[in-house]
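Quick one:
INPUT:
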């Protein structure tokens, strides 16, 4: 009688199917054929090729393509915001006349800047908006000093600082003293400290006044102001233009040229961007954003932000790693939303650290997105378990130091469920992206059916936008996601687009 065939549990060669690496068919020393197996994730058993396919599918639904009409709507919304800020400047001359903004693709909730999310209202793409941007608006500029820039960090946690107006001229002090806290010294001198909360109060009131004035005299084709909301120190504006809804998170900041002394040692280390971009591009400037440490004084403390540098570093990150990052971000935004202890900015920092840690030729592999996604989840879980996430530019600053043990372990357990079944969580994010796109398309269809005004249909005759501008804008949006757009604006002339993407002028 023939011997019974061995099942996969009886030690046959098929039991090797849990091998985490793919092995081509080969023969051993006894000339027995060893079959090939798909590459598997050891922890979850998921096929790597399946995870790669799901990440690609998510990217397809998450990255929207814009036609000429949408590009014109983006341009119209941008011009409206810049015109509004020009009118804010004219109210009391507080803002610099010739200002330089930093426009980032993605809202604050997407982690494009290091700010706390617990005070932000919950907005969802598809339900509340179709596209989101963050606009950093300098209330003060200090651009005439040589590096390194020394800040007053005696009263603050690492990565934070108070800002004394003694660094500025008498005219600036007089303009802004109503947005300062006052400290009297024993020698009789008075020191004015620029207050992020008072600046945000002034900024919100000024924007609200300007928008009331604009809406009192509406012009044909002007964007609809659907929402203006104060979210902590951020002013969120949702505009309706044609069939598009655009969220602008407008953040008042202090802008510096050069590099802070506290981050000087970071420049001495080796980094993944060495030889790809120049040090001058990386250290061209930094910001103070209105965010406070867990134990700091909200009315005085600002947070260092290296958003301009991060835009430059992003150019050196491979497409496959960026795809993994975007997919991982979509997962954690939903999964770790309550309590709000982890932000997408923590994940961004871990991605930058991984670029320093791993070989460039490994990170440039096109079909390694799944490995990168799993690695980012592992890194984030490791950071939570150890309550340790160093700031990329100031490593001595632990961004998770304030977490309680209970919150850290709660989030770590949630991530453990993702790591056990990453494919299922990817499918969920894909369905969410599809649902958001369906909501957007439905709004566009209803807008077209009801003939909602749009820049193209309302401009008319001599004011019809140039088709060349539409093509240019479409190219900027589709080919430069996340890049730095610095805007040089004159409040007396906001009719012409004067903006720069990285080192290109348009």
């Amino acid at each position: 009688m023939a011997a019974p065939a061995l099942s996969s549990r009886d030690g046959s060669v098929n039991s090797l199917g849990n091998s985490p690496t793919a092995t081509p068919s080969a023969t051993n020393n006894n000339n027995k054929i060893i079959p090939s197996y798909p590459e598997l994730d050891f922890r979850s058993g998921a096929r790597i090729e399946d995870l790669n396919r799901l990440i690609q599918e998510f990217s397809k639904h998450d990255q929207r393509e814009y036609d000429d009409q949408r590009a014109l709507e983006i341009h119209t919304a941008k011009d409206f915001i810049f015109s509004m800020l020009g009118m804010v400047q004219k109210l009391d001359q507080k803002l610099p006349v010739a200002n330089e903004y930093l426009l980032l693709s993605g809202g604050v909730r997407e982690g494009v800047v290091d700010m706390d999310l617990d005070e932000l209202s919950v907005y969802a793409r598809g339900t509340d908006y179709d596209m989101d941007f963050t606009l950093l608006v300098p209330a003060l500029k200090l651009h005439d000093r040589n590096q390194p820039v020394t800040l007053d960090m005696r009263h603050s946690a690492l990565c934070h600082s108070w800002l004394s107006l003694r660094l500025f001229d008498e005219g600036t002090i007089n303009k802004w003293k109503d947005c300062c806290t006052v400290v009297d010294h024993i020698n009789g001198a008075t020191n004015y400290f620029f207050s992020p909360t008072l600046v945000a109060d002034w900024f919100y009131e000024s924007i609200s006044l300007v928008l009331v004035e604009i809406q009192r005299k509406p012009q044909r084709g002007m964007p609809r102001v659907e929402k203006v909301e104060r979210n902590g120190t951020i002013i969120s504006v949702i505009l309706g233009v044609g069939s598009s809804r655009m969220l602008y998170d407008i953040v008042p900041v202090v802008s510096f040229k050069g590099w802070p002394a506290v981050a000087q040692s970071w420049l001495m280390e080796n980094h993944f961007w060495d030889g790809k971009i120049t040090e001058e591009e990386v250290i061209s400037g930094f910001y103070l954003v209105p965010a406070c440490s867990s134990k700091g004084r909200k009315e005085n403390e600002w947070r260092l932000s290296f958003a301009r540098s991060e835009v430059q570093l992003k150019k050196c990150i491979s497409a496959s790693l960026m795809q993994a990052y975007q997919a991982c971000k979509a997962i954690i935004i939903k999964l770790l939303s309550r309590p709000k202890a982890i932000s997408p900015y923590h994940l961004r920092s871990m991605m930058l650290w991984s670029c320093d840690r791993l070989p460039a030729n490994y990170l440039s592999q096109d079909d390694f997105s799944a490995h990168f996604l799993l690695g980012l989840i592992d890194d984030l879980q490791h950071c939570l378990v150890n309550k340790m996430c160093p700031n990329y530019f100031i490593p001595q600053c632990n961004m998770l130091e304030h977490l309680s043990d209970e919150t850290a372990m709660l989030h770590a357990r949630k991530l453990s469920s993702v790591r056990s079944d990453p494919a299922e969580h990817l499918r969920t994010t894909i369905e969410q992206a599809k649902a958001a796109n369906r909501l957007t398309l439905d709004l566009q269809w209803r807008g077209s059916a009801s003939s909602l005004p749009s820049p193209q249909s309302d401009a008319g005759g001599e004011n019809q936008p140039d088709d060349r501008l539409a093509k240019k804008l479409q190219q900027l949006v589709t080919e430069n996601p996340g890049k730095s757009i610095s805007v040089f604006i004159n409040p007396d002339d906001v009719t012409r687009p004067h903006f720069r993407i990285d080192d290109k002028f348009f």
